[in-house]
Design a protein that fits this description.
about 240 residues, alpha/beta, 7 strands, Rossmann fold
């Protein structure tokens, strides 16, 4: 009989865990036995996800965090490392979609917010939690990306450029730690999924034609439970 709790005794941190793919992933990891730290900006939404995890017999802790706060990641790291020694799974799901439009009309403030959340916070998370990840016997990092990062399209450059840089940072980190520890890194493109961000980008689209976040979450959980090679990249169909 297979082990339905492969993550027993393991600690996971999921950003953007208050809704969408982040929330679904947190629940999927908890269902497989992980203690999941849920982080996002909205306390009430995090508490709702935490309640669902507990009701299903799982274990979770909320850690409200605004990734645009320059000291937020450092405070989060200090709080977590003060309670736990190792981090086994890091899922970087949080992202910000700036207004779509031509390159010549990008709003600098909006663009800066996207750069901060999608790129700078990613580097800060990797830097802050690298010591805890290195203490794990089987650390996995999964970052959620978008196809526009590698396949530019008109009017998407403000978001796409941050995701291109996001991919580069994760792949570089994967290569840097490949031979000095047990950290493996994967990049997952969820594809068209029924999320608030997708609805914002494609307001006329019928959401019922799209897969649910649970589909992506289940794939991430399966990936975490498997033996993927660091630097792995895939798109969820």
């Amino acid at each position: 009989m297979g082990n339905d709790k492969p993550f027993d005794g393991q600690l996971a941190l999921v950003t953007g865990a208050s809704k969408g793919i982040g929330a679904a992933t947190a629940k999927a990891l908890a269902a497989k036995g992980a203690h999941v730290i849920l982080t996002a900006r909205t306390d009430s939404a995090l508490e709702a996800v935490e309640d669902e995890i507990h009701a299903a017999g799982g274990s979770a802790t909320i850690a409200p965090l605004d990734l645009s706060d320059k000291d937020g990641v450092a405070r989060l790291s200090a709080a977590i490392s003060g309670r736990w020694d190792t981090l086994d799974m890091l899922v970087i799901s949080a992202a910000y979609l700036p207004a779509l439009g031509p390159v010549t009309q990008i709003d600098p403030k909006d663009f800066n917010k996207a750069i901060t959340i999608n790129l700078l916070a990613t580097q800060a998370l990797l830097a802050a939690f690298d010591p805890m990840l290195k203490r794990s016997e089987n650390a996995r990092v999964v970052g959620l990306t978008s196809s526009v990062g590698s396949d530019p399209r008109p009017f998407w450059s403000a978001y796409a450029s941050t995701k291109a840089a996001f991919d580069n940072v994760l792949q570089s980190y994967a290569q840097e730690v490949a031979r000095i520890g047990n950290i493996r890194v994967a990049i997952v493109d969820p594809g068209a999924t029924r999320t608030d961000m997708r609805e914002k980008a494609f307001p006329g689209e019928d959401p019922q034609t799209l897969k649910t976040p649970d589909v992506v979450a289940d794939r991430i959980a399966s990936l975490m439970a498997g033996d993927f090679v660091t630097g792995h990249r895939e798109r969820v169909g």
